[in-house]
Amino acid sequence: MSQALAEIRTQFFEFDDPAAPLPLCVGPPLSRFTLAYEVYGRMNADKSNVVLLYHAMTGSQHAAGWNPDVPGTDGRWTDEMHEGWWDAFIGPGKALDTDRFCVVCANYLGGCYGSTGPASINPATDRPWGSSFPVLRMRDIVESQMKLLDYLGVDKLHAVVGPSLGGYLALLTAAIHPERVRFVLPITTGVDITIDQRILNFEQVTAIEADPNFHGGDYYDGARPDVGLALARRIAHKAFISPDALRMRARAEVVSHKPPHGWYEMNHPVESYMLHQGQKFVKRFDANSYLRILDAWQWFNLVKEADARDYVDLFRRCLGQEFLVFSIDNDHTFSRPNQEKLVRLLKMADVPVIWITVHSDKGHDAFLLEPRLFAPHIQEVLNHFEG
Q: Are 278 and 234 a contacting pair, CB within 8 Å?
């Protein structure tokens, strides 16, 4: 962990503008919301060195350094949240070099780490939003973060970076606000949702909603739907890492016990490893937030949400940008054909693009675990610094 980023605190942007509320793709506009965010490095005089970082699906605003507590997270800020999820990538001399750049990372609208989400208090009722929280689309998340940039006085980003699901948001930002972005770095992501992803997501949704404690999303006064949420996490986790990496991680797990429900007795280390992943996850995440983000993923439509005619029309807007697209050769969440399609569409629109395939045995999680495979390429692109 970098000494320069050792002590980080989450900040809170409070949007409150009834006269000009945030339009939502589905339902009425939102006049009040909070975004939890963190800043690493310093903005230069004209604020042209800012990099906006979108986190992955269940990530947080805490991307680097050490943050032992975030107010209002209701116990979800567990020990594993204290170290930034991209700490190996952000700091002096690292891939996102804070000696040169100022990195901003915000928790999604709809999240559960300080941003307004279903577990937050609805000011109209003084109770958690629960099932009444607005339906969200990816564009809503992007536009809420543009409000944050306005508040910070950032007119144009040096770069927008998004790994995994955050890559959808990076692409949307580039297409909806091309004048606000110079470099675009979508990391192991895609331009649409595949059948495999749709099935996995649907399985996770039904796992949570089948939990008897879910109560349609209004469970905050009682037991949480932990069994359903843990199952959803296990369904997703099997796609995050390669089978070889899963075998290695599970090698030392205890297997001589039964799950907390049912009669089945586990007989392989991978079973207890996956059980542990689910049990650990429910301590740090909210089921309603999980569902809202999954729903936005299931409905994701880059062309429609960017108000474009087709992909070529969409990416023609990005002619003043440069793209660095990453693939991971052993990725089972966003496999290489996803990035191949993105690169092909960018080339059809004559947008400058570099495509790098990272070779790793860690699967999708390589973007979290192996900075040395990504850093040289990120630095080469971002260090074309203007201003």
A: yes
The secondary structure element, H or E, covering residue 279 is helix 269-282
Residues 6+ apart with CB under 8 A from 143: 22, 23, 176
Q: Determine which one of 55, 62, 177, 364 is catalytic.
A: 364
Selecting among 164, 242, 327, 335, the annotated active-site residue is 164
State yes or no: is 164 an active-site residue: yes
Tokens standing for residue 224: 């949480």
d(CA 164, CA 186): 8
- The Cα diameter of the chain in Å comes to 65
Render each residue's pLDDT in the chain as its tens digit; 387 residues: 344 567 899 999 999 999 999 999 999 999 999 999 999 999 999 999 999 999 999 999 999 999 999 999 999 999 999 999 999 999 999 999 999 999 999 999 999 999 999 999 999 999 999 999 999 999 999 999 999 999 999 999 999 999 999 999 999 999 999 999 999 999 999 999 999 999 999 999 999 999 999 999 999 999 999 999 999 999 999 888 877 777 777 766 566 667 777 788 888 888 888 988 999 999 999 999 999 999 999 999 999 999 999 999 999 999 999 999 999 999 999 999 999 999 999 999 999 999 999 999 999 999 999 999 999 999 999 987 544
The interaxial angle of helices 165-176 and 287-298, nearest 10 deg, is 60
Domains detected in the chain = 3-193+302-382 (3.40.50.1820), 196-293 (1.10.1740.110)
- Which residue is associated with the tokens 């109209």? 124
Distance CA 184, CA 164 (A): 14
CA dist 159 and 151 (Å) reads 18
Q: For residue 320, give both structure tokens.
A: 């003043």
Catalytic residue among 62, 331, 335, 365: 331
CA dist., res. 60 & res. 82, Å (int): 11
Q: How many angstroms separate the CA atoms of 108 and 106, rounded?
A: 6
